[in-house]
Amino acid sequence: QVQLVESGGGLVQAGGSLGLSCAASGSIGSITRMAWFRQAPGKQRELVATITTGGTTNYADSVKGRFTISGDTAKNTVYLQMNSLKPEDTGVYYCWTFATKNYWGQGTQVTVSS
Fold this sequence. Notes:
Elements: E1 2-8, E2 10-13, E3 18-26, E4 33-39, E5 46-52, E6 57-59, E7 67-72, E8 77-82, E9 91-98, E10 102-104, E11 108-113
Parallel strand pairs: 2-11
Antiparallel strand pairs: 1-3, 3-8, 4-5, 4-9, 5-6, 7-8, 9-10, 9-11
């Protein structure tokens, strides 16, 4: 079993910044990648950014140049720094990983006001 605990998020004005953290614990030895997803009201959950244990990152086109995913292997924590936030970035952000099955965090709300 893997546990993912997210922190961060909140309310920010458009153009502002927020940071999210996701701490992994449990049977994390087989984890090779982690990711952030988000889900806006009435929409499907979508991939925001991924990072491998080797440090390779990928981003959704909608967040490229504004969001940065990073990891601290010593702390088993993944971060998402979000800059130049837009109202369309509003949603619940979920941390994800795969270790024999999918694991999700509890989700954290990000609200960007215009």
